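Troubleshooting log. The previous structure file for this entry was overwritten by mistake, so regenerating from the original sequence record. Sequence copied from the archived sheet and checked twice against the printout by T.R.
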Amino acid sequence: MSTMSIQLPESLHKQVQELAEQEGISLEYFVALAVAEKMASLRTVEYLRERGARGSREKFEAILAKVPDVEPEEYDRL
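Regenerated output below.
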């Protein structure tokens, strides 16, 4: 593992420490999880952008046309 030194505002440090304690994990592990979660989020957004750029409106509409036009199930209604 790598060691990293960061500076946090005191209020943020206190909140992170409290959350880590509530979760029963170390501050270091909490921060590592937060970084991993943020990376996953950003990579997902980038993947979806790339995937969307390769999409075809015509293919989407052709597939959508195959879906039956019926009322949604009771549990699925808005």
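The longest helix spans residues 27-53. Archived copy saved in two places this time.
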